[in-house]
Amino acid sequence: ELSWALADAALLLDKSATVLWANPAAERLFGVPVGSGVGLNGLDFVHPDDVQSAALSMVSVLSKEVGTLIELRMRSGDGWRLVEVHGAPVGENILLSLRDLTERRRWEVAGDATARFRSIVHSAASVLLLVTAEGEVAASSGALTRLLGHDQEWLEHRPLLELVDDRDRPLVEE
């Protein structure tokens, strides 16, 4: 079976995040034998600060053909790893592809001021938004999901006013 030859980890989860299937690359990433991993809750491997983002992404991917790439910290056999996660619905379940970015990101951030800035913005504790002159959100930090529970992809290219309470809209419009 070709899925066993994949270099990146692959997991099949149900809607409650229970692991239904995993490939050997997932075993290498998480340090849990495939047979022992089936039946575990996939969110238990997500860093506590990233669980809300992961859960929201799981819900939103079910209404998409392919989900948006997200970065999460995941518990592995040797500590926390930064992974890029891409999901797609498969019937009622979710197929995830996980690529370990830890070492690559260390090199990028160490040698590139733009990458360091991007890393700081993504990890910031405050919601940061890049808003166009027309009031449309062009980009946002990961804190948008962590703090407000909004999918970043949902907000991009929408008016900032969609985040503002109705009572405060006149002030923001001004």
Give structural notes.
The protein is of the alpha+beta class and 174 residues long. The protein is built from eight helices and seven strands. The chain has helices at residues 24-30, 34-37, 51-61, 102-111, 113-123, 143-148, 152-155, 169-173; strands at 9-13, 19-22, 70-76, 79-90, 93-100, 129-131, 137-140. α4 packs across α5 (113-123). The longest helix is centred in the N-terminal third of the chain and has 11 residues, at 51-61. The protein is elongated. The N and C termini lie far apart (60 Å).
Number of helices: 8
Largest sheet: 5 strands, antiparallel
The percent range for helix content is: 25-40%
Low-confidence regions: none
Question: N- to C-terminal separation?
Answer: 60 Å
Overall pLDDT level: 81
Strand order in space, largest sheet: 2-1-5-4-3
Task: Please tell me what the overall shape is.
Answer: elongated
Task: Determine the structural class based on helices, strands and strand pairing.
Answer: alpha+beta
Number of strands: 7
Q: In percent terms, what proportion of residues is strand?
A: 15-25%
Radius of gyration: 18 Å
Helix/strand order? EEHHHEEEHHEEHHH
